[in-house]
Predict the structure.
Amino acid sequence: MNYRTRTRSIRIRSSRTFCGQHLYDIAMGPDSEHNEMRGVARGFIAIGDIAVGFLALGGLARGVFALGGVSIGAFAFGGVSLGLLSLGGMAIGAVAIGGMAVGGVAIGGLAVGYYALGGNAVGKYVFSAAQRSDEAVAFFNRLLPGTK
């Protein structure tokens, strides 16, 4: 018996532009017309399988504000995130917060950074269950009031 699965595609794009970009672009699912296996959205607000924009939401998201499975941007939020401020399961950035965090300031279960706070922390100034440097305690008290 031959079973066929139907995949639904969504393509919605604003007619208006801002700085040469569409205000919003939504692209999800395959598009046989353009020979795309995944929807690629590009716009000021981009939502898609792959999203590129100022605000990007998608499986792979790149933008100033990026939210997705894999996110890259100034402010990145997602499963794997890379950015200046990065929050995610695995976060890499100047300030990284996540299960595994790597950055200048790293906060997480496994934290690796110049200033590191976490269950297992490695860095120049460390605040963890096993080790507490005075500089790290002072820094994280300023950053997170009430930290002892």
